[in-house]
């Protein structure tokens, strides 16, 4: 049975969706979806998660799509507008685990430039004893190296963790390495999953 939690950040502890920002820039949903599927794509954004600066990543893309210059740079300049607050069910679980002295850590694909502002979005982040952030390490989920790094840094084996993430790819990768996992798709399902493992 696991004895520690390993938390993803976006859409597990705090809600993050680029559409929250780009609905303000592109009121037409068709135009908005086209921009996010063809210009500011998740594959493009992952380069900032690997450590590339927002300024450089945006500048490179704006050179290819100059007519979208301002919308592209909004990704950097209005980053916080992509968030819509913490997930209350996760915050409550983190507090309850803290009260039971269950060790908790973070593992996030996140830029080094936005790490501090994200950690300030919820007091739940203050309950994490350590964080591995991809932008600081130069490696991202679901690459095995970042999961090995978590174990080395926190002195625990894969099976000691319950890893909670909203990405099926990340969950599959961690499970293949021996982590216990919970695929976060419904906030209401989180607490029962921890109770079933005797963590709460």
Which terms would index this structure?
7 strands; Rossmann fold; 200 residues; two-stranded antiparallel ribbon; five-stranded parallel sheet; alpha/beta
What's this model, at a glance?
The protein is built from 11 helices and 7 strands. The chain has helices at 18-25, 29-38, 42-49, 54-64, 69-77, 88-99, 115-119, 134-137, 144-154, 168-176, 190-196; strands spanning 4-7, 14-16, 83-86, 104-108, 130-133, 161-165, 180-183.
Which SSEs are present, and which pair or pack?
Blueprint: E1 4-7, E2 14-16, H1 18-25, H2 29-38, H3 42-49, H4 54-64, H5 69-77, E3 83-86, H6 88-99, E4 104-108, H7 115-119, E5 130-133, H8 134-137, H9 144-154, E6 161-165, H10 168-176, E7 180-183, H11 190-196
Parallel strand pairs: 1-4, 1-6, 4-5, 6-7
Antiparallel strand pairs: 2-3
Can you put this structure into words, describing what you see?
This protein has 200 residues and is an alpha/beta fold. The chain folds into two domains: 4-15 and 86-196, Rossmann fold (3-Layer(aba) Sandwich), CATH 3.40.50.1000; 16-82. The chain is built from eleven helices and seven strands. The protein has helices at residues 18-25, 29-38, 42-49, 54-64, 69-77, 88-99, 115-119, 134-137, 144-154, 168-176, 190-196, and strands spanning 4-7, 14-16, 83-86, 104-108, 130-133, 161-165, 180-183. Strands 5-4-1-6-7 form a five-stranded parallel sheet, with helices on both faces. A two-stranded antiparallel sheet has the order 2-3. Strand 6, helix 10 (168-176) and strand 7 (180-183) form a beta-alpha-beta unit. Helix 1 (18-25) crosses helix 2 (29-38) and helix 4 (54-64) packs antiparallel against helix 5 (69-77). The longest helix is centred in the middle third of the chain and has 12 residues, at 88-99. It is globular and about 55 Å long. The mean pLDDT is 98.
């Amino acid at each position: 049975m696991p004895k520690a939690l390993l938390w993803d950040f976006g859409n597990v502890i705090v809600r993050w969706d680029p559409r929250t920002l780009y609905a303000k820039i592109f009121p037409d949903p068709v135009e908005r979806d086209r921009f996010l599927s063809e210009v500011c794509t998740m594959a493009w954004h992952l380069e900032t998660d690997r450590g590339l600066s927002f300024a450089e990543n945006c500048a490179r893309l704006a050179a290819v799509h100059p007519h979208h210059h301002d919308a592209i740079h909004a990704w950097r300049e209005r980053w916080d507008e992509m968030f819509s607050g913490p997930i209350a069910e996760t915050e409550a679980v983190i507090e309850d685990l803290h009260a039971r002295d269950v060790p908790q850590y973070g593992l996030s694909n996140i830029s080094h430039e936005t790490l501090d502002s994200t950690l300030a979005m919820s007091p739940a982040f203050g309950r994490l004893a350590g964080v591995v952030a991809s932008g600081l390490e130069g490696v991202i989920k679901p690459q095995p190296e970042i999961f090995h790094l978590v174990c080395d840094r926190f002195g625990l084996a894969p099976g000691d963790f319950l890893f909670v993430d909203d990405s099926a790819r990340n969950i599959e990768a961690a499970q293949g390495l021996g982590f216990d996992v919970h695929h976060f798709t419904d906030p209401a399902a989180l607490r029962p999953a921890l109770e079933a493992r005797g963590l709460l």
